[in-house]
């Protein structure tokens, strides 16, 4: 089957909107551009221009419709996480073998071994035992925020600490070391953001934050922590991982993956959800009065504000997707944020409907790599929204959010709000 796009001339193609430039996303997800791509070119060629000191790349296919995003994520035989790893930017070829030690960057069947070992550590019981701790933490942070009386930055006063401290507890990182984790994740996730100064290497080029050189400190720490847990086992993830058959190198990578995947995602989701509630006082009111289900609200807030904007795959063979020919070796990038707003699947996709059901959003991905921490993330978010509702009579936005400059994480750096007196 040949689509009109295959026949489209180069001029028409160059007029497709750009969704690559990380600076575009700092103004909020470019929903109009995504809609145009979904309608006109659901698998659209994107240029990868040099930006923010990073060199130009070969370009990629942007996949924007829900059905195609799911198709790509469920077909690792065609769309590989291993060939070029999972970030839009190509890694330095010398770093690729190293990056592939992480299960995120593997394909079945190899991926299955690490995934099974990790799943055993993420038992539902361990996550459920965590609820009381998360609740007490949310309550304490929100009470402190309310003490300020007027306007507060919800990110700085509540949600950043909430996400980080929950994760460090689950991992079993001692309280004194939590700041280290924060600094390491910032470096990896915020590397496109001008607020996070890039580390420059030879020739003044930024050093890839996922390279072995940048991660040495974190890996040494992971080994130390694992050795400590073997001597002093506790009910935490690092104890569970350190006592499995994971090789040392795999354990280090796991620690890195969990630190990054588990922190910035929840750190984005919590203020993102509050922003959506603040923008829709009607739905917020229904939630406060208990008229909307908490579980469906958590899902809907994740749909409208997906913490992960995109993930990359590489074509392992020639393929066709939505009528577009993809060649072996091409980069294929799925945009979760666009899939979640696809009008082919979600009625009135820009309306916040806290009772939306079904809600097949792809914020946690799909296929073999579907988020391993989804259960833990949902618990944290549910507890956070419940405690927010308990702590105040409602949330008013007191200014515009400041967003992360990134085409990967839908980050919110600050969110000024007023918490109304109960
Ligand atoms: C709202 C919060 C979260 C969101 C939106 C999210 C999203 C995602 C997505 C989209 C993927 C798929 C990656 C791919 O397709 O290549 C993923 C994978 C993963 N996530 Fe999450 N995540 C969240 C929270 C967490 C938490 C709290 C943890 C751990 C503590 C975690 C651990 C992981 C791991 C280990 C993987 C890799 C799974 C694999 O490769 O098999 N995530 N996440």
UniProtKB/TrEMBL annotation:
<dbReference type="Pfam" id="PF00067">
    <property type="entry name" value="p450"/>
</dbReference>
<keyword id="KW-0408">Iron</keyword>
<keyword id="KW-0503">Monooxygenase</keyword>
<dbReference type="InterPro" id="IPR036396">
    <property type="entry name" value="Cyt_P450_sf"/>
</dbReference>
<protein>
    <submittedName>
        <fullName>Cytochrome P450</fullName>
    </submittedName>
</protein>
<dbReference type="InterPro" id="IPR002397">
    <property type="entry name" value="Cyt_P450_B"/>
</dbReference>
<dbReference type="InterPro" id="IPR001128">
    <property type="entry name" value="Cyt_P450"/>
</dbReference>
<keyword id="KW-0349">Heme</keyword>
<keyword id="KW-0479">Metal-binding</keyword>
<dbReference type="InterPro" id="IPR017972">
    <property type="entry name" value="Cyt_P450_CS"/>
</dbReference>
<keyword id="KW-0560">Oxidoreductase</keyword>
<comment type="similarity">
    <text>Belongs to the cytochrome P450 family.</text>
</comment>
